[in-house]
Amino acid sequence: MTETKAAIGDPVSDEPAIPRDKLGSVFEDIRSHALFDHELHGCLNCGICTATCPSAHYYDYSPREIVQLLWTENLEGIYDAMQEKIWACAQCYTCAARCPFGNSPGGLVMIMREVAIKHGMQSAKDVLRPFSRVLLKVISTGNQLAPNMITSDAFPDWGPNVSKVNAPLNILRKAIPVPTLHTMDTAWEVNLKTSVELYTIWEATGVLDQLETVDENLFDVINDIMDEKREEYAEWLEEQQGKE
């Protein structure tokens, strides 16, 4: 009879072994996701997904490997892929469009990313840390950009290659509401009731719980902001009732 190891580790690494029950818990969260069965149907091992994947050309990443790991329930391989490889996916879904078996490796990667956040994996923390400013604005206001902010000077953290993707502002503005066309201020100002409702949605859907797992400091900042807005909204409601 084959003995099942209680933990799995790399014999040439100083990293501690991962308990098998933890590996199983991670995979079960992936498999129980509402979209899992929709994204994974099997694998013909044809390699079309990897051959057409932009990320596979530049990174140690293969959509076919992701499908194979999940299809064969390779717990150690799945956990290992979640430490780095899944973050190389550009979410272009070329793989889903080309797969003859109807798989969506990109969709599976998204599920794995969600589970990585849920389990507080260091890879998720490292990837999301540079986006703290964006997360703060999206969660607290529902938006993050105004048209005249889309410049390389405003976003130095975009890197030296941002000039390659620059576009004329008049083109970018076509996709943005008219009130925000000529100012940065409007994009940051959100109706108080709307802001409170957005926060309630993030809270009820578990988004804030996940945020606390990967960035506790940002979670505390957002909590403080929204506590203040809820107080302001409650005071405003009292004022309106007093006028009736």
Topology:
Elements: E1 7-8, E2 18-19, H1 20-31, H2 36-39, H3 48-51, H4 63-71, H5 75-81, H6 94-98, H7 105-118, H8 122-128, H9 132-141, H10 169-172, H11 185-188, H12 192-204, H13 207-214, H14 216-243
Antiparallel strand pairs: 1-2
Notable traits:
mainly alpha, 2% strand
Brief summary of the model shown:
The chain is built from 14 helices and two strands. The protein has helices spanning 20-31, 36-39, 48-51, 63-71, 75-81, 94-98, 105-118, 122-128, 132-141, 169-172, 185-188, 192-204, 207-214, 216-243; strands at residues 7-8, 18-19.
Counted up, domains total: 2
Alpha-beta classification: mainly alpha
Q: Order of helices and strands, N to C?
A: EEHHHHHHHHHHHHHH
pLDDT averaged over residues: 82
Please list the strands of the largest sheet in the order they lie side by side: 1-2
Measure the end-to-end span: 79 Å
Q: Count every helix, treating DSSP H or I runs of 4 or more residues as helices.
A: 14
